[in-house]
Every structure is written in C-alpha cells, then in structure tokens.
Specification:
The protein is of the alpha/beta class. It contains 6 helices and 10 strands. The structure holds flavin mononucleotide.
Length: 185
C-alpha cells in the first residue's frame, strides 16, 4: 500500500514527467510506495489523507506559482498539515529567470509551514547559477531544485540522491518489516 502522496502541477509536462521518475525511483526501494496525482484534480481531503507528502511545482510567469497550484493555493488556508512531513521539488530555468529561479518552491514552502507541516528534503544550492530565489534559505533550497531547460542531464542523479535522502527523512527505512529492534536484544 502506498505510503506517500505525491501531488504535482505542470503546464508543459516537465514536472509531470519528473513526478513519474520520482515514483519509479521510490519503486526501486519498495514497490508502490508512492501514489501520484495532479493538483488540478485534488481536494484538501485528498491531501489530508497522507502523513507523508511530496509536492511538485514549477515556477511560471516570472516568480509565480504554476497555474493549477495558483488555483489550489487559496484552498490551502483550510489545510491542516500538523503532524505531516512534506518534501517539495521544483522545476525552473536558472539562466532565463535567474532572479526568480524556483520562487514557487519558496512560496509553497512558506505555505506548508504556515499550515503546520514539517518540511524535509532541503537541497544544497551548490552547482546552480542564479542571482536570487525565494526558495533559498542560506546555502539550501527548500526542496529539490531541477532545471530541465538547462541541466536535464543532471536530473536523474539528483532524483536518485533526493529519494535516498527522503527514505531516511520520511523514516521509511525504519518502517521496513523486520527493522524493528528485537525486544530485550
Ligand atoms: C513564460 C515563462 C515564465 C517562466 N518563469 C520562470 C521563473 O520565474 N522562474 C523559474 O525558475 N522558471 C521559470 N520558467 C521556467 C519553467 O519553470 C520551466 O520551463 C519548467 O520546466 C516548466 O515546467 P512544466 O513543463 O511542468 O510546466 C518560466 C518559463 C516560461 C515559459
């Protein structure tokens, strides 16, 4: 049974494609760990069903949320993420939009924390060229940073590393059958 709900929005299909690649990467660890859905067809209740969540969002229109996330965003005022663990991945273009690279990740991360969620999956900002980003906190992005426009060759290795990080940060490794400490042992 799936343990993680992944919700993405995508105008041109890149984020949808990456969502599927993330699902497959988790699959290699444990089959059917991730259930994937488009935020365009999602309700607050659909999200509240999960304790572990991944949100996927590209930045559009110079520092704005992707269209379907933009529509969903006001509904998040009613979303209670207390006790839930959330990771975000974002797509953007670090050269054409260097001063708003991945801004939507920063906007969504703020909202997740406002809703009481526990944010994991922070990602080093080393290896990217950009002037500014709302997704930056010190030397880290508030989620996995992907650039399918200029660094598509790095996407697979970034996904693999991030998924390994999340298996630990989501506590999935400890939930594996047989991994519980033996009483008295
Ligand atoms: C009109 C337009 C505006 C964009 N604005 C930004 C931006 O402000 N920041 C950014 O990082 N990327 C920006 N992008 C790049 C997209 O986020 C990137 O192409 C992404 O892969 C699109 O994902 P999608 O195919 O899932 O919609 C923009 C792209 C276009 C065409």
């Amino acid at each position: 049974m799936a343990k993680i709900g992944l919700f993405y929005g995508s105008n041109d299909g890149h984020t949808e494609d990456v969502a599927e690649r993330i699902r497959v990467a988790f699959d290699a660890y444990e089959p059917d760990l991730v259930s994937v859905a488009n935020i365009a067809h999602t309700s607050i209740e659909d999200i509240e069903h999960w304790d572990k969540l991944i949100f996927g969002i590209p930045t559009w229109n110079i520092g704005q949320l992707q269209d379907d996330w933009y529509i969903f965003f006001p509904k998040m005022d009613a979303l209670d993420l207390t006790g839930k663990t959330i990771a975000i991945f974002g797509l953007g273009d670090q050269y054409e939009y260097s001063s708003t690279f991945l801004d939507a990740v920063g906007i969504l991360a703020d909202k997740v924390m406002e809703c009481g969620g526990d944010l994991v999956g922070l990602w080093s900002a080393k290896g990217y060229q950009h002037w500014d980003s709302l997704a930056l906190e010190g030397d880290y992005f508030l989620g996995l940073a992907l650039d399918e426009d200029h660094q598509p060759e790095l996407t697979d290795s970034r996904i693999q590393a991030w998924v390994a990080q999340l298996i630990s940060e989501f506590g999935i490794a400890e939930e594996q059958p047989g991994s519980e400490p033996v009483a008295g042992g």
